[in-house]
Design brief:
Blueprint: H1 3-27, E1 34-37, E2 46-49, H2 51-60, H3 77-80, H4 92-106, H5 127-145, H6 147-150, H7 157-161, H8 207-211, H9 232-249, H10 271-290, H11 313-317
Antiparallel strand pairs: 1-2
Amino acid sequence: MNKAIRASAGALLVLVGGFLTIAMIRGFDKPGVITTQNGYRGVAMGSLYNPALVKASVAANKIPGYLPQLPPVGPKASAVYKNVQILGDLSVGQFTRTMASITQWVAPVQGCNYCHNPNNMADDGLYTKVVARRMLQMTQNINQNWTTHVAATGVTCYTCHRGNNIPLNVWNNAPPPKPMGFADTQTGKNHPSRAAGETSLPLDPFTPFLEQAAPIRIQATAALPGTDDSSIKQTDWTYALMMHMATGLGVNCTYCHNTRAFADWSQSPPQRVTAWYGIRMVRDINNQYLDPLASVFPAARKGPLGDVAKANCTTCHQGVYKPLFGVSMAKDFPELQKLAPAKLSSN
C-alpha cells in the first residue's frame, strides 16, 4: 500500500469517526440547566439545577393528605384512655386524629398494631410504642427549641419517615474498614461511600460531628503559615461532612459559603448560620433522644456495634434544600409544636 492510499484510508477513518462522534453526541439528551444566584454578583455564588432531577424531587416531596384539625371539645384523652403520657391534654377527637396521622406517616401497612397491643392498647410491651412516645417528645423539642434551624416551618413524623417504619436515611456507628495496604484506614479513607459523596474522604463524617462535638472549622483566616493548626486529617473529615451536607440538601458549596472567603461569616449567605444550628440540632437529637434508646431496641434493629440508627442531614432533607420544599405540615398539628409535660393518666 503506497503513501497516497494510506493517507486516503486515514482520512476516511477520521471522517467516519467524526460522523460517528457527532451522531453519538446528538443522541444524548442534554438537559437544560437552571441557575439561581444566591450571593453577590461576580463571585460565582450560584446554584445549578438539572430540571429533570428537580422534577423528580418535587414528585418525591409531595405532602400527604391528612384529617383536618378538630376543636378542643369533649373529654380529654387522659380521662378516657389509660397510660396516655404525652398527648393526654388533647380531646379524644384531637388525640384520635393525631394517632391516625402518625399511623399514616410511620406504619401505613401495619396500622395501629405496629405500636399497640390490640388486646390492651395501654400496654407498653411493644418496644415500638416506647420509641414512638420518645419520638413525639423529640418532635416537640425540635419545634419548640430549634427554631434557629427549622424556623416556623417545623417538622412532623412525616418529615423523616415518609410512610416508612424506619426513615430511609439513617446511620449507625461502624467498625473501621479492612486494611488496604498503605492506604489510610484509621479514618476510613479510600473507601468511597455515599455518606461522603462517593469520594475517597473518610467514610464516616457522622460520628465525630453529629454525635460527638469534634471541631469543624478548619479554614485559615490568612494565607500565611502558622495561622491555622488544623491537620490534614481534620480537614479530610470536615470536607467529608461538607460533602454529606451538600448531597443531602441537593446543593453545592456556595449555598452556604462564599468560596473566596470561607473564614469570613460576614460574606457568607444566611444559610450558613442555619446550617450551623442544624449541625447542633442533629447532634442534640442523636445524643438526647436516639442513643439513649439502645436499651429499648431489639438486637435486630441495632448496628454492628450495638447502637441504634441515628439522624443526619439527609434524614429530613432527603436531597432538597428545605424538607418538603419548605411546606409546613407542623402548623396543622399544634400538639407537636410544644413540649408537653409527660404524665401518666390516672384512668
